[in-house]
Amino acid sequence: MKPGIHPTYRPVVYRDRAADFAFLTRSTASSDQTIEWTDGKTYPVIDVQISSASHPFWTGRQRLLDTEGRVEKFRAKYARRGPQRSR
Question: Of the candidates 16, 59, 60, 80, which lies 20 to 30 Å from 7 by C-alpha distance?
Fold first, then answer.
C-alpha cells in the first residue's frame, strides 16, 4: 500500500440508542464523540439508527401495516378529483 493515501483504520464503537446496544469493531469512520468502553479505553462512537438488535428481520418482531387505512386515505384523497380525461 502507498503510504499517506489511505484513511486510518482503527477501533470504533457503533451504538444503537433505540435498542441500548453497542459493539466495538474496526473501521475507517471517524467521529468527534468518544465513549469509554468496557476495557477502560476511550474510542470514537458512531450512533446508528438501526442495528441487528433493533431490526425486525433479526429480532423477529414485525410491524403490522394498516392497509385498509391506507386504501381509505387514498380514496379520500383522489375522490375529490373528477375522472381524468386523455388529451
Answer: 16
The one-letter amino acid at 8: T
Rounded Cα–Cα distance for residues 21 and 11 (Å): 17
Q: Terminal CA-to-CA distance of the chain, rounded, Å?
A: 62
| pTM recorded for the entire structure | 0.60
Distances (CA, A) of 6 to 3, 9, 37, 40, 56: 7, 9, 26, 28, 35
Strand order, beta sheet including 21-27: 21-27, 10-16, 42-48, 34-36
d(CA 72, CA 50) in angstroms, rounded, equals 31
